[in-house]
Design a protein that fits this description.
This protein has about 850 residues and is α+β, with helices and mostly antiparallel strands. The chain is built from 22 helices and 30 strands. The radius of gyration is 42 Å and the shape is elongated.
Length: about 850
């Protein structure tokens, strides 16, 4: 019908009191439950009205008929304040005005109908209060021209009134649009009254805009769809305005129990914006609901290659694992492998055996659904197995060995390695008496008064000049695993020397003994706060301190994740790593480390004397430690003791240390870190396994023999065979402080002749800390100066699952400061323009005859 109106009236829809967010009509979608059986609705025209009960099930419309007006007034009353109101829309009319103030309990909507009879449907979305949210409220009302007495039909008097109105207003009653209101128009009105309300199109709720990546599929987006006519012939479809951005085949409509949802997937090759239109067709016509979808450009996948066994003797079997590769858009990937020896393979995980020695570049190419690809490469170095560890040692190989086994090469040490061989030199170092820092301190105190300085003031002297270089280097490695910060431990000068000297004394002994000694030191007790830790006592308000319990488990013995004996991580059925302990385990170990007190000695000597355990503060109850195959003690249980003495407490501590020391994780966890400190940051599983075998049994039935372990690390073919040398993943970044000390040793500085060690360059501890990021016993945290799993994000290191721990501190600052420090303290003499004699000798030996240029390769 055309837009003609017969009368001017107002009507009021009064929802008598309802709880906010409860359904008023069957079309409402409340977010909370407990709706009443029915809601009372009242409508009025000029003071006349009627009431009806609306059930929450059944017909989807109100069969209420009111006179068609120029302006219809909807007033919706709620039983509590409305905080916000979303979009308000209208079907069958135009909204003239919305009167709503946040915090009020009502909303008034003025609507101008667009026809004489039919439905006017007002939809309110996202009505929010403190109780909840109504996703959408739909208020339909049937409109029948001329039904002024609200009877639901047109009487004769009402017809007469319409005729009078037609005569008064020339065009008001022209229902058929012929320009003249006449009897035919009245017959059309009567026909509408006889046939009931007309059919109307379905109502489709709003769908928000979408933003997706190429090939990404959206989640199922629910939307409201109401067929008010209820004819049962509803059909729903959706179409895209741009098939290159979103194809119609990639649009999925789903209906479950009357609820509708739509899913959209972006094109793998196209990007931009498309309009998706939902089309709902019913007996009363069709309704279209558009929404926009923006597809971002397809980005390349990320290739990640795990190739653990990248060094070995031919024939070398390797497994390539690309399952950590991914596509940012989530599309499936194609995995293509080229092994560099003429062989190829397909798939996320492949096996291959290299039969010929040499350097083989393995290339992994991953390709996404859009055709974009990325590449990861690794070199596999295959040896022919002819290397003899006991053969002659060249000068260059001896120097390389001393960068691993000492604080850098020095001419006399190079000669010793060449003369004794690798194994002989290691044996001589293990049997050599240690050079304690207390010796250096005692002599230096005579002239320089170092008694007020900390251990860091003598460390460069100590590390560079002590003849027992392997022991010095081993102690430096161990104190980066069992970390202590002397200043944070409130340890005095003597305490620092005592503490570090014991690392030297135990550097080639039992790792189990080192753990026990550290546990009883006052330094560790204060650093990790279990000194004076007491058993739980609710009345006294005490409970065991958990710091040392946590760190001795996760950092000093077994680590966070269950390991195979070759150092690789175990996985559960879902592919996840398996934790070695939980918080309850920490609590149980914390109960063991209770009662520790500093030694009852004269003032200042407690930091050089082991702590003891006060029995009245120790927990003697049962303690459940870790349980594993072959566990010690039986079932991992320390039983309760009725004898509460210091001796029993000491036994409890010994048992807890044994429980960790004999755990199958301890050997691979500690051995891998020692390999990383001496030789390479990325040892192969086979390398780790060979060293673990020595940790488990040194050949004489001893477990944890550090001297045997370190010797196995340095003599392993992955450390010594030149065939592996070209591999870019082998070796390690030299720690900044070792790089500096290595130059000092090589230059054999003789600047301070009256020092304990005459070939020494003195650096202030604070200067060394700033310039190198390292200082002995001054790690910034219990996690050392750098963490063993550190890698640089978004680099080939990270993409190939390789680590470079030292790069965590060898950064843009130390890359400049370390060479500057070396130049100012080692190469330059005190006189301006002068260089050290050894450096000058190098320059002279490396000059090319007649050219004056320097052959820098000859300096290496």
């Amino acid at each position: 019908m055309n837009d003609k109106r017969l009368a001017s009236r107002h009507w009021l829809l009064d929802i008598k009191p309802m709880m906010f967010a409860l359904a008023v009509l069957p079309m409402l979608t409340p977010s909370v439950a407990a709706a009443p059986e029915a809601s009372s609705v009242r409508w009025e025209i000029d003071g006349r009205g009627a009431e009806a009960d609306l059930a929450l099930t059944g017909s989807a419309s109100i069969e209420t008929r009111v006179v068609a007006d120029d302006d219809l007034l909807f007033r919706v009353e709620f039983s509590e304040a409305v905080l916000s109101l979303g979009p308000v829309s209208c079907t069958g009319g135009i909204i003239n005005n919305l009167d709503f103030i946040p915090g009020q309990s009502s909303a008034t909507i003025s609507v101008r109908p667009n026809g004489v009879s039919g439905y006017v449907i007002v939809s309110l979305q996202d009505v929010r209060s403190s109780s909840g949210t109504l996703g959408e409220m739909i208020l339909p009302l049937g409109v029948l021209a001329g039904d002024s007495d609200l009877s639901g039909s047109i009487s004769g008097s009402e017809i007469q009134n319409m005729i009078n109105l037609i005569e008064i207003s020339e065009q008001q009653g022209d229902l058929d649009g012929n320009g003249v209101p006449d009897s035919f128009d009245l017959l059309a009105m009567l026909r509408s009254a006889d046939e009931g309300l007309p059919q109307v199109p379905p109502v489709v709720g709003k769908v928000n805009e979408l933003a997706l990546s190429a090939s990404e599929q959206s989640s199922a987006i629910a939307f409201d769809l109401r067929d008010i006519s209820g004819s049962g012939t509803l059909s729903v479809a959706a179409t895209s305005s741009d098939q290159a951005v979103v194809h119609n085949n990639d649009i999925t409509l789903t209906e479950t129990n009357g609820r509708w949802s739509i899913q959209v997937q972006g094109s793998a090759v196209g990007n931009g914006t498309a309009t998706i239109t939902i089309i709902a067709q019913g007996d009363g016509g069709s309704t279209e609901q558009p929404f926009g979808v923006t597809i971002a450009p397809n980005s390349s996948p990320v290739a990640r290659m795990l190739l653990p066994q990248y060094l070995g003797v031919a024939p070398l079997a390797v497994m390539g694992d690309a399952r950590e590769s991914f596509d940012p858009e989530g599309s499936s990937l194609i995995y293509s492998w080229d092994f560099g020896d003429g062989s190829t393979a397909m798939g996320p995980a492949v096996n291959h055996t290299f039969t010929s020695p040499g350097q083989h570049v393995v290339r992994l190419t991953v390709t996404d659904a859009g055709g974009l690809s990325s590449i990861a490469e690794r070199t596999v170095s295959v040896s022919d197995g002819s290397f003899n560890i006991h053969g002659p040692v060249s000068e260059s190989e001896a120097r390389r060995f001393l960068w691993q086994a000492a604080f850098g090469p020095r001419d006399n040490d190079v000669a010793d390695v060449m003369n004794l061989g690798y194994s002989g030199w290691i044996d001589s170092q293990i049997t050599m008496n240690r050079t304690p820092i207390t010796y250096a301190l005692g002599v230096a105190n005579k002239d320089r008064g170092y008694d007020s300085d900390r251990i860091a003031h003598l460390f460069d002297d100590y590390a560079c000049e002590a003849p027992d270089q392997l022991r010095q280097r081993a102690a430096w490695a161990l104190i980066q695993i069992i970390v202590l910060n002397g200043q944070q431990a409130s340890s005095g000068t003597d305490g620092d020397y005592y503490y570090y000297d014991n690392y030297l004394a135990k550097a080639f002994g039992s790792y189990r003994d080192l753990l026990e000694w550290v546990t009883y030191t006052y330094q560790m007790g204060t650093y990790l706060t279990y000194h004076d830790s007491r058993k739980a006592d609710e009345i006294a308000g005490t409970f065991p301190d958990e710091n040392y319990a946590r760190e001795i488990i996760q950092l000093f013995t077994i680590g966070l994740w269950e390991l195979y004996s070759d150092g690789t991580e175990m996985r559960d059925g879902g592919g996840d790593r398996i934790p070695t302990f939980d918080n309850e385990d920490i609590k149980q170990f914390a109960r063991v480390f209770t009662g520790f007190r500093r030694a009852e000695t004269e003032y200042h000597f407690w930091d050089t004397t082991p702590m003891y355990i006060r029995a009245d503060r120790h927990e003697f109850g049962a303690k459940q430690l870790l349980d594993y195959p072959g566990v010690f003690p039986v079932a991992g249980l320390i039983p309760a003791s009725s004898v509460e003495t210091e001796a029993v407490a000491n036994t409890n501590v010994d048992t807890a240390i044994d429980n960790l020391f004999y755990h199958p994780n301890c050997a691979p966890f500690i051995c891998k870190q020692l390999i990383m400190r001496f030789v390479t940051s990325n040892p192969t599983p086979a390398y780790v396994q060979r060293v673990v075998d020595v940790f488990d049994d040194d050949g004489a039935g001893n477990r944890g023999n550090l001297g045997a372990v370190i010797k196995a690390i340095l003599l392993d073919r992955e450390a010594r065979d030149p065939a592996y040398r070209p591999n870019p993943a082998s070796g390690k970044v030299i720690e900044p402080i070792i790089a500096v000390f290595g130059v000092y040793r090589a230059l054999e500085r003789a600047h301070w002749h009256d020092d304990v060690f005459p070939h020494r360059v003195r650096i202030a501890p604070w200067d060394r800390r700033i310039q190198t990021g390292q200082n002995i016993m001054e790690s910034p945290s219990v996690f050392n100066f750098y963490q063993p799993d550190y890698t640089i994000p978004n680099t080939d290191l990270e993409r190939n699952r390789l680590v470079a721990p030292e790069l965590q501190i060898h950064d843009a600052l130390t890359a400049i400061s370390v060479p500057n420090l070396t130049m100012s303290t080692a190469i330059r003499e005190s006189d301006p323009g002068q260089v050290s004699p050894k450096y000058a000798e190098w320059l002279d030996a490396s000059r090319i005859q007649g050219s004056g240029e320097i052959d820098r390769a000859a300096l290496l």
